[in-house]
Design brief:
Keywords: Heme, Iron, Lyase, Metal-binding, Oxidoreductase, Peroxidase, Signal. GO terms for molecular function: ferrochelatase activity; heme binding; metal ion binding; peroxidase activity. With 430 residues, the protein is an alpha+beta fold. The protein contains eleven helices and eleven strands.
Length: 430
């Protein structure tokens, strides 16, 4: 869970320099005023703006945390939000099944409602009806809302001929201990924000909008490190304490789009500029992991725990020397190290953009923490992205004895909605 397909760095949402914004303290600041500040200072972040998040340099100064509320992602665009945007500190994943008797007409009406709500909430405005006022005092806080369709959605709506071949169910893996009640679903929604109340507000609005057209199948909550929590921009750490995201594909890579997004002339046509999301609830067996010494943990991963550099030396971004051996002739990076196995050049170039959240759902009766990773990865085709890498991990990843895959889903996420469109309109009304 820590190399080629990992989480985005935090730098895409760095605070601006102190003194460059006119942002008032949180007390007494209206959402409208915060939005005005966002527009004046150019804090808007869309898919294109997210690429700037890979810059290595940090601002000279730090802005107050209240400035985080002004961050705004775009709802309309070539791609849906929540894919290339920087990691947010709070997240919710929720899957729905269409209600009995609901079909294509009801689904279209639901996606229209959801799109209207998402557009308003991402702009920092109240929900179009029945707003709960939970986020009344906050700015948009980089809120993103993303929608996808599961394999079963096409049966429920009579659109089987429009179902992509890439949406075929994932194969079974030896590390799977899947709870079917918390897997798959007709519809999937990903919500992320840099404020917990803003994220919950969106979750509640989406659930209320479902009305009688769809019922909740499962719902999960996650978190990441807050923007500005470190002295300098850093790749995030997971609950094992490992730097997690070093080798993620970047929008600046020449082949980024072809790896992550369906081509504009792709098949089926309604998926143009869309992507496929694999969602896995991966429980970390932290009691077992924490019994290992730091050196043993590093051998499992193949990277230094302190700074994410490969065991063969250098910095976090230094290429691994997979052929380097120690004085005993053993590989410095073990053959079953997670970082070695997941490298794209060890998997026929397979790559995926990971954008997960950590989770903690309390403790079992014996005190064992129910905690781990809400794994979300994006790719143009899961049969060329997630599946070959996971199959290889299944055959001998040293990390596998410290994790357990407990839920799974695969969703087709169409391209972004143009002005005047709703997400999925080209499928449901094409």
């Amino acid at each position: 869970m820590t190399d080629q397909d990992q989480t985005l760095p935090e730098t895409a949402r760095l605070p601006r320099q102190a003194g460059t914004e006119n942002v008032s303290p949180r007390t007494g600041v209206s959402r409208r005023r915060l939005l005005g500040t966002a527009g004046a200072t150019g804090l808007a972040l869309g898919a294109a703006g997210a690429a700037a998040g890979y810059a290595a340099a940090a601002p000279a100064g730090a802005a107050p945390l209240t400035s985080l509320g002004a961050g705004r992602a775009k709802f309309h665009g070539k791609h849906q939000p929540g894919i290339t945007d920087a990691l947010q500190s709070c997240g919710h994943l929720i899957a729905f099944d269409l209600a009995a008797g609901a079909g294509r007409t009801e689904a279209a009406a639901l996606l229209r409602r959801w799109s209207t709500t998402a557009e308003r909430l991402m702009a920092g405005e109240p929900a179009p009806h029945g707003d709960t006022d939970v986020a009344r005092d906050a700015g948009p806080s980089s809120l993103t809302i993303t929608f996808g369709f599961g394999h079963s959605f096409f049966d429920r709506t009579g659109l089987q001929k429009q179902r992509p071949a890439a949406l075929d169910p994932l194969p079974d893996f030896s590390s799977d201990h899947l709870d079917k009640a918390r897997s798959n679903g007709d519809l999937w929604v990903q919500i992320g924000a840099d404020d917990a109340l803003v994220a919950f507000h969106a979750l509640r609005a989406i659930q209320k909008d479902a009305g009688g057209a769809a019922r909740i199948r499962w719902q999960m909550n996650g978190f990441n490190r807050s923007p500005g929590a470190t002295a300098r921009p850093m790749t995030a750490r997971n609950l094992m304490g490992q730097i997690d995201g070093t080798g993620n594909p970047k929008p600046t890579d020449s082949d980024f789009a072809q790896r992550i997004f369906v081509p504009g002339d792709g098949t089926p046509s309604w998926m143009a500029n869309g992507s496929y999301a694999v969602v896995r609830r991966i429980r970390m067996l932290l009691d077992d992991w924490e019994k290992l010494s730091p050196a043993q943990q590093e051998n499992v991963i193949g990277r230094r725990k302190s700074d994410g550099a490969p065991l063969t030396g250098g910095t976090e971004t230094t290429e691994m020397d997979l052929e380097k051996t120690d004085k005993n002739g053993e590989y410095v990076i073990p053959v079953n190290a997670h970082a070695r196995i997941t490298r794209p050049d060890q998997n026929g170039g397979a790559a995926m953009l990971r954008r997960p959240f950590s989770y903690h759902d309390g403790y079992d009766a014996d005190g064992t923490p129910d905690a781990g990773l809400l794994f979300i990865c994006w790719q143009a085709d899961p049969l060329r992205g997630f599946v070959p890498v996971q199959r290889k991990l299944d055959r001998g990843d040293a990390l596998s004895q410290y994790i357990r895959h407990e839920a799974s889903g695969l969703f087709a996420v169409p391209g972004g909605a143009a002005k005047g469109e709703y997400v999925g309109e080209r499928l449901l009304e094409g």
